[in-house]
Design a protein that fits this description.
This protein is of the alpha+beta class. Helices cover 35% and strands 19% of the residues. The chain contains 13 helices and 12 strands. Strands 1, 2, 3, 4, 5, 8, 9, 10, 11 and 12 form a 10-stranded mixed β-sheet that branches. Strand 3, helix 2 and strand 4 form a beta-alpha-beta unit. Helix 3 crosses helix 13. The radius of gyration is 20 Å and the shape is globular. The two termini are 19 Å apart.
Length: 386
C-alpha cells in the first residue's frame, strides 16, 4: 500500500467564547488556515485535489456547503473542490483519515484535511434545536433508539460522569488533571512551543497568536470552587474542555507528490483506526480504538513517544491512561483542551498539528492521537515524525 505523508499542519490560536476570534466568520477562519498551508509549503494551489473539512454544528454561518465556502474565502482557485464532514468531535481527525485513505489508495495525491468551528457565532447544539423552533419532529434520537437504549437522549455530560464512576476517578483527581493542563499549556506558550503551528489572525488590537483560554494563574482551590454540572457528580466546567473558536488544517500527500512538488514531509501516517461502542457511556471508546490501532500497527503503548488524547472532560484521558497503563508524562505534554479549548470540528487537525510539532521539537518518533466522539465512536491516528 502507498504511504501518506503530512507535509505541514497548522492551527489558529484558540479563541474564548465571544472572545478575540468572535468577529471572524467561520468560513474566513477556514480560508485563513488553507492559505497558511499553501504559503508555508509552497505547494501549487492548483495541485490540491480536494479539501475535506470537519465541522460539527453545520447551521447558520456554518451551513450550506461550509467547506466549499472556506475554499471560496481563501486564495485557492475556485477549481479546488471541498466537502464538509461530521464525525462529531473527531470530524477533522476523520478528515485526515479520509485524506490519507485517498492518498494510500492512489486515487489522489494532494489533499487538505481541515476543520473550522466558531462556537461563538454558531453555538453548540443550535442545529439540534431547529426542530423545536419550527415545531416539527422530535429531534435526532428516534423512538426506536429510545426504546433500544432506554434513554430519551444521549448526553456527553452523563457519559463523562459514568466514565469517572467506572474508573474510580474522584473530583480532586479530575481537578488536579485540569490544573496540570493549564500549567503545561502556560509553560509551552512561554517556551514558544506553539509558534511553529499557529497561524496568526488579525483582530481589533493586532494579531491573535496566543491561546486565549490558558489560565497561567490557575489554582487547585479555584478549580475546586467551580460548581458541579450535576448534583453529586464530579464534572465541572473547570475540569472539562473550554468552548472555543478556531480552525486548523494539514496537507496530506503521496510519495509521488513529495517528489513532483519538492516537498519535505514532517511525518508519515503509520496507521488509522475508527471504532464504535456503547453510545450511552459514549466517551470510553478511545480505549478500544487505541487497542485496535496498536494491534494493526504491531505496536505496544510503550512504543508511542507522545499521546494526544482530547480533554473533552478530564475523565476521558484519565480513564484512557488507566485502561492502557500508559505513561502520564507522555500525555498532552503541551496541555490540552481544558486549557487550550476544544473547537469541536477543528480539534482533530488542531491536535495533529500540536502532536507532529511536539514530536519534531523533542526529536521523538511516534505519536498517537485519539478523541471521544458523539454516539460512542473514536478515531485513532498513529504518526511517525520524519
Amino acid at each position: 500500500m502507498a504511504e501518506a505523508y503530512i507535509v505541514e499542519a497548522v492551527r489558529t490560536a484558540g479563541g474564548k467564547r465571544n472572545g478575540r476570534l468572535a468577529g471572524w466568520h467561520p468560513a474566513d477562519m477556514g480560508g485563513a488556515v488553507l492559505d497558511a498551508l499553501v504559503a508555508r509549503t509552497g505547494i501549487d494551489p492548483a495541485a490540491i485535489e480536494d479539501v475535506i473539512l470537519g465541522c460539527v454544528t453545520q447551521a447558520g454561518e456554518q451551513g450550506f456547503a461550509f467547506a466549499r465556502n472556506a475554499v471560496l474565502a481563501s486564495s485557492l482557485p475556485e477549481t479546488v473542490p471541498a466537502v464538509t464532514i461530521d464525525r462529531q468531535c473527531g470530524s477533522s481527525q476523520q478528515a485526515v483519515q479520509f485524506a490519507a485513505q485517498a492518498v494510500m489508495s492512489g486515487t489522489q495525491d494532494v489533499v487538505i484535511a481541515a476543520g473550522a468551528e466558531s462556537m461563538s457565532r454558531v453555538p453548540m447544539f443550535s442545529n439540534i434545536a431547529l426542530h423545536e423552533k419550527a415545531g416539527i419532529g422530535t429531534g435526532p434520537v428516534s423512538g426506536r433508539i429510545r426504546e433500544r437504549y432506554g434513554v430519551a437522549a444521549f448526553s456527553q455530560f452523563s457519559g463523562a460522569e459514568a466514565l469517572a464512576r467506572k474508573y474510580g476517578l474522584a473530583r480532586e483527581t479530575l481537578d488536579r488533571f485540569a490544573l496540570e493542563s493549564h500549567r503545561r499549556a502556560a509553560a509551552a506558550t512561554e517556551a514558544g512551543a506553539f509558534e511553529r503551528e499557529i497561524v496568526p489572525l488579525a483582530v481589533a488590537d493586532g494579531q491573535h497568536r496566543t491561546d486565549e483560554g490558558i489560565r497561567a494563574d490557575a489554582t487547585l482551590e479555584g478549580i475546586a470552587a467551580v460548581k458541579l454540572l450535576q448534583e453529586g457528580g464530579v464534572i465541572s466546567a473547570a475540569n472539562a474542555s473550554q468552548i472555543c473558536d478556531g480552525a486548523s488544517a494539514a496537507l496530506v500527500v503521496s510519495e509521488a507528490a513529495l517528489k513532483r512538488h519538492g516537498l519535505t514531509p514532517l511525518a508519515r501516517i503509520v496507521t488509522l483506526a475508527v471504532t464504535a461502542g456503547d453510545p450511552v457511556i459514549m466517551l470510553e471508546e478511545p480505549i478500544a480504538a487505541t487497542r485496535r490501532a496498536l494491534d494493526k500497527a504491531g505496536m505496544r503503548i510503550g512504543d508511542i513517544d507522545l499521546y494526544e488524547v482530547n480533554e473533552a472532560f478530564a475523565s476521558v484521558p484519565l480513564a484512557w491512561l488507566r485502561a492502557l497503563d500508559a505513561d502520564p508524562d507522555r500525555l498532552n505534554v503541551n496541555g490540552g483542551a481544558i486549557a487550550l479549548g476544544h473547537p469541536l470540528g477543528a480539534s482533530g487537525t488542531k491536535l495533529l498539528a500540536t502532536l507532529v510539532h511536539a514530536l519534531k521539537a523533542r526529536g521523538l518518533r511516534y505519536g498517537l492521537q485519539t478523541m471521544c466522539e458523539g454516539g460512542g465512536i473514536a478515531n485513532v491516528t498513529i504518526v511517525e515524525a520524519l
